[in-house]
Design goal:
Length: 446
């Protein structure tokens, strides 16, 4: 997995051609055609229904099983269970005062937040940021609904001083009793699940505490507790963070774990799923696409994905239209893919683009947020841009709960601040703006 600061992205090839990467030898996804039941084979040891006619089967030999089903008239497709690839994790950026001053990252004053380090959040300004401060001065005069945002990442430090009060809690579970009290298939899943560690029966376990800082940083950007006179403020005031630990500390996430994470999040109430990871396409990636589409149709979920950090702008922009990243480039109406911007309002030099496959931009360079152990630090990447948009999306959804999935995406896109230099580099040609998105949502409701 190729990793840049703040972003987890797997690259197995330099072209758009799917390649044969590492896969789990005993897993195979099988999608049956409409009206057909799962095929029978001595190679299938057990099966789990994901949705409808889509199954994950355990097999003694994934390749042999796949080959045996190539000519089956009842099978829509098969797909191996790919890993993303191992790689060292990124490092945080040093807080060098001279460098920060040169970038224009001086302390700002935001009237709506008493958090002592909120002045570091340049994304809150209305010039080249998302006008979070302006939006809070003009919020609708009613109580905002709570929105659960699932952070599918390296886990979250849910004891962090700025995060412990905004963590989602599964009220159907009794903490630590070793039972699946709510009958959702998971034991003691208080804050979410950990697909990296499984029990004797193969179920994901409950320890979602962060190993790496990445998931904690993402979570703080979305929803760090506002106005608690501690640390920073998250973009959203109405979010509960569902922690799903699916990306290992050395990366290398598995497709079946990603799919399970998405499904768990949606079935347990998450309406926004933040995905700051990706990989090169393999075998079409039909499974991930079909699951995202099903979540949108059945649960109204919006999946927020990072575009990737493979560019060397302004000299060479990595175009996802030609060399796609997954899930960022998947064709789904309820998936929104995010490029990254700098404090000056331009595209971050590392950010991938795509006139067809990258939807919108948000601040992703020099983003200050929470990290493990009650600490704070700065990082850059489309990983940091995605949670900024997730926070905006959660606020809009909280005030206008009818705007689910595709409709929410439409509002975010239609309210983007147009940037001439972005034309031809992304679908919206602009940067997300919380104040304008709330205004657009209000007009859309009429």
């Amino acid at each position: 997995m190729k990793l840049t600061i703040g972003f987890l992205v797997a690259v197995f090839a330099l072209s758009a051609t799917a390649v044969e990467g590492r896969f789990h030898p005993n897993n195979l996804f099988i999608k049956m055609k409409e009206g057909k039941t799962l095929v029978k084979s001595p190679l299938i040891k057990s099966s789990t229904q994901i949705f409808g006619n889509l199954y994950l089967v355990k097999t003694s030999d994934a390749v042999a099983l796949q080959n045996s089903l190539k000519n089956s008239s009842s099978v829509a497709y098969t797909e191996k269970d790919f890993f993303a690839g191992r790689e060292a994790m990124p490092k945080l950026e040093p807080m060098d005062p001279v460098s920060l001053k040169m970038k224009g990252l001086f302390e700002r004053q935001f009237s709506n937040f008493n958090d002592p380090q909120a002045g570091q959040l340049w994304a809150f300004n209305g010039v080249n940021g998302m006008d979070v401060d302006g939006a809070y001065r003009a919020l609708p005069s009613r109580t905002v609904n709570e929105v659960i945002v699932a952070v599918v990442d390296t886990g979250v430090d849910h004891n962090h001083e700025d995060l412990r009060d905004i963590m989602w809690e599964n009220r159907g579970e009794i903490r630590g009793d070793g039972k699946d009290n709510d009958g959702n298939g998971y034991i003691d899943d208080i804050h979410g699940i950990n697909t990296l560690v499984r029990d004797a029966e193969g179920r994901a376990t409950m320890n979602t505490m962060a190993g790496h800082w990445h998931g904690t940083h993402v979570s703080g950007t979305i929803a760090a507790t506002q106005n608690n006179a501690i640390g920073i403020a998250g973009v959203a005031s109405n979010v509960k963070i569902m922690a799903i630990r699916t990306v290992p500390d050395t990366s290398d996430e598995l497709n079946s774990d990603i799919v399970e994470s998405y499904k768990y999040a949606a079935m347990n109430g998450a309406k926004i799923i933040n995905c700051s990871f990706g990989k090169a396409p393999m075998e079409g990636d039909n499974v991930v696409r079909d699951v995202i589409n099903e979540l949108g149709k059945k649960y109204g979920v919006l999946v927020v994905a990072s575009a990737g950090n493979d560019s060397w702008g302004p000299f060479s922009w990595h175009n996802n239209d030609n060399d796609p990243k997954i899930p960022a480039a998947l064709d789904s109406a309820n998936l929104i893919t995010i490029a990254s911007t700098t404090v000056s309002g331009g595209l971050s030099s590392f950010s991938n683009i795509g006139a067809k496959t990258v939807d919108i931009a948000s601040p992703g360079s020099d983003i200050y947020s929470t990290i493990n152990g009650n600490k704070y630090a700065m990082a850059s990447g489309t990983s940091m841009a995605s949670p900024n948009l997730s926070g905006v999306a959660a606020m809009v959804l909280g005030y206008y709960p009818n705007l689910k999935g595709e409709k929410l995406k439409d509002v975010l896109m239609a309210s983007a601040v147009k940037v001439p230099a972005f034309e031809g580099k992304m679908v919206s040609g602009g940067r997300v703006n919380l104040k304008l998105a709330l205004e657009k949502a209000k007009a859309t409701r009429r």
